[in-house]
Amino acid sequence: MPKKKTVITYGTFDLFHIGHLRLLKRAKELGDHLIVGVSTDRFNAIKGKRSIIPFEHRAEIVKAIRYVDEVIEENSWEQKVDDIKNYEVDILVMGEDWKGKFDHLKEYCDVVYLPRTHGVSSTELKTSLRNLLEVSPARLREALAMLEQILRELE
Ligand code: C2G
C-alpha cells in the first residue's frame, strides 16, 4: 500500500470565495490528504490582516469543504517546519502570490505555487461591499425623485 500523499496549505480564508475553493481543490488533487492551516485572528494581526469573519467560523467553513481532510490553527510563520515534520507532509501548496516565499521549506517537502484565481479576493469583496453601503447624496436625490414620481403616478 503506497504511503498516502499529504498536502498542506495555509491561509486566512476570510469571506470564503471561489479563489479559495479552487486553491483547495487543486491542492487536494496533488495528493490524498489535505491539511489546511487557518490563520487565527491573532496571527492575522501579525500578518497585518484584519479578517471580517472570526477564526472559529473561518475554520468551520474550511473544514466543511469536501477537499479538506483536516484543519489546524496557523499561529505563526515559523510553525510550518514543525507541521511538515509532525504531519509527514509531502507537498506544501500556496497561491503564486507567495511564489518564492516558502522555497526554504524545499528542504523538508515539495513546494508548489499554484496560479491564483483572478478577479476575486477578500479585499476586493470588502471594497465592493463598502461601495454598496456608501450612498452618495446625489444617489439619494435620484432615489427620492424616483419615489416622488411613483407617488405622483399613484395619486
Ligand atoms: N488565493 C487564490 N486566488 C485568490 C485569492 C486567494 O488562489 N483570488 C489563494 C492564496 O494564494 C492563498 C489561499 O488562497 O494560497 C488563501 O488566501 P488568503 O486567505 O488570502 O491567505 P493569505 O492571507 O495569503 O495567508 O502562511 C501563509 C499565509 O497564512 C497565507
Characterization of this structure:
- The protein has one domain (6-120): 3-Layer(aba) Sandwich (Rossmann fold), CATH 3.40.50.
- The protein is elongated, with a radius of gyration of 21 Å.
- It contains six helices and five strands; from the N terminus they run βαβααβαββαα.
- 42% of the residues lie in helices and 18% in strands.
- The model has no long low-confidence stretch (mean pLDDT 95).
- With 155 residues, it is of the alpha/beta class.
- It has helices at 18-28, 41-47, 55-63, 79-86, 122-133, 137-154, and strands at 6-11, 33-39, 70-74, 91-95, 110-114.
- The protein starts with 5 loop residues before the first strand and ends with a helix.
- Strands 3-2-1-4-5 form a five-stranded parallel β-sheet.
- The structure holds [cytidine-5'-phosphate] glycerylphosphoric acid ester.
Q: DSSP helix count?
A: 6
Distance linking N and C termini: 80 Å
Give the domain tally: 1
Helical residues, percent: 40-55%
Ligands (ions, cofactors included)? [cytidine-5'-phosphate] glycerylphosphoric acid ester
**CATH hierarchy: architecture:** 3-Layer(aba) Sandwich
CATH topology: Rossmann fold
Q: Which assembly state applies to the chains in this document?
A: single chain
SS strand fraction:
15-25%
- Average pLDDT value? 95
Give, in order, the helices and strands.
EHEHHEHEEHH
Biggest sheet strand line-up:
3-2-1-4-5
Shape: elongated
Number of strands: 5
Describe the largest sheet.
Answer: 5 strands, parallel
